[in-house]
Amino acid sequence: MIFLTPEFYQRTDVLQIAAELIGKYLVLNTDGQAKKCLIVETEAYNGVGDKASHAYKGRRTRRTETMYLKGGHAYVYLCYGVHHLFNVVTSVEDDPKAVLIRALSTPDDEPKFHPASGPGKLARYLGINAAFDATSLTDGALRLAQGMELSADQIAATPRIGVDYAQEDALLPYRFIWKEHPALSGPRGINRNLRSITEIVPRFS
DNA sequence: CAGCAGATTGACT
DNA sequence: GTCAATCTGCTGC
């Protein structure tokens, strides 16, 4: 397995990274057992200028402090007091950009059963909790690895989910999906307003 | 300090 | 479609 390196995470273009993470593996090692899942949905949170981000206007709290670490760490926080959400911290130290991992294809998937088809569900599925917050993704139990080679027309960008409060930034096409994948989040019609990946991330390879 | 909204989900009408 | 669960952090008295 080829793990992603600090250099991958420490690039400053979080949109580029969020798009490239589609088709990569998320690997959890516990007790000598490895669980390998494919990332099929992500969202980019683009730093201090992004109204949808916890770090908007450079806000620093005990919770968001993790986003200010250098790229390659996990940012795990509790949402609605109920669900843990897992993010990949990117860019350099003190530039709080992160990618929310929203859905995974897992070894336990069945035609009508997708246990990691949502950001809260995937954390529960893998047992990701507050103990993973601020841990390294390059030398810890949780890592990302090279996965499938996807072509540009297999990936699309859409507006992000659940960020209506972010005014005009709620419309930005910062959510990336593996088109038509059965493990995408939300049974509802949230895959509207699709944009071409090359339109949003021109250098997608 | 009270009130409220939030990067969600699943149970129920 | 509606609503509760229940932690963090912001706003306003």
Low-pLDDT stretches: none
Strand content: 25-35%
Morphology: globular
- The structure class reads alpha+beta
Could you walk me through the main structural features you see in this protein, from its secondary elements to its overall organization?
The protein is α+β, with helices and mostly antiparallel strands and 205 residues long. It has 4 helices and 9 strands, in the order H-H-E-E-E-E-E-H-E-E-E-E-H. It has helices spanning 6-9, 14-20, 119-126, 197-200, and strands at residues 25-30, 33-46, 74-79, 83-90, 97-105, 142-145, 155-158, 175-178, 195-196. Strands 1, 2, 3, 4, 5, 6, 7, 8 and 9 form a 9-stranded antiparallel beta sheet that branches. Strand 1 (25-30) and strand 2 (33-46) form a beta hairpin. The protein binds a DNA duplex (13 and 13 nucleotides) through residues 43, 45, 52-54, 59, 61-64, 77-83, 85, 87, 100, 102, 118-121, 160-163, 165-166, 185.
What are the SSEs and their pairings?
Blueprint: H1 6-9, H2 14-20, E1 25-30, E2 33-46, E3 74-79, E4 83-90, E5 97-105, H3 119-126, E6 142-145, E7 155-158, E8 175-178, E9 195-196, H4 197-200
Antiparallel strand pairs: 1-2, 1-6, 2-5, 2-8, 3-4, 4-5, 7-8, 7-9
The protein binds a DNA duplex (13 and 13 nucleotides) through strand 3, strand 4 and helix 3.
Features:
11% helix; DNA-binding; alpha+beta; globular; single chain
Question: How would you concisely characterize the structure shown here?
Answer:
This protein has helices at 6-9, 14-20, 119-126, 197-200, and strands at residues 25-30, 33-46, 74-79, 83-90, 97-105, 142-145, 155-158, 175-178, 195-196. The chain has 205 residues and is α+β, with helices and mostly antiparallel strands. It binds a DNA duplex (13 and 13 nucleotides) through residues 43, 45, 52-54, 59, 61-64, 77-83, 85, 87, 100, 102, 118-121, 160-163, 165-166, 185.
